[in-house]
């Protein structure tokens, strides 16, 4: 599951399509995060930005942000996101995200809008997501 707030432009080849560029970036980020020792920090410098990640069970959550952003705030945002997903799905698993990626995106959209933190209250986010569900079920 990915969510893009900024365009990164060309990776190496200007003839690459945007989807190929993004796939290459995802591979780079995945390799960078997955190969790190658990003893190292959850903050990695990458391409003049920071990758901030946290592993929960078998799931990795990674945010890429500017060097000026607060690492602890990003780690707290990841934790809040996971807690909301746990409240919403029970105990969130990879299958929950695969089969309900639209709900996971909805939760993220309530937390972050345009790359900026929009809401920090778990209860407010859950209420908003449930309100979206109620509107969808009324339509269907």
From TrEMBL:
Gene3D superfamilies in alphabetical order: 3.30.450.60
InterPro entries: AP_complex_ssu, AP_mu_sigma_su, Clathrin_sm-chain_CS, Longin-like_dom_sf
Primary residence: membrane
TM region(s), chain numbering: none
Compartment list: Endomembrane system
Domain AP complex mu/sigma subunit: 19-133
Keyword Zinc: no
Keywords associated with the record: Membrane, Protein transport, Transport
Keyword Transport: yes
Sequence similarity: Belongs to the adaptor complexes small subunit family.
Protein name: AP complex subunit sigma
Organism lineage string: Eukaryota, Metamonada, Carpediemonas-like organisms, Aduncisulcus
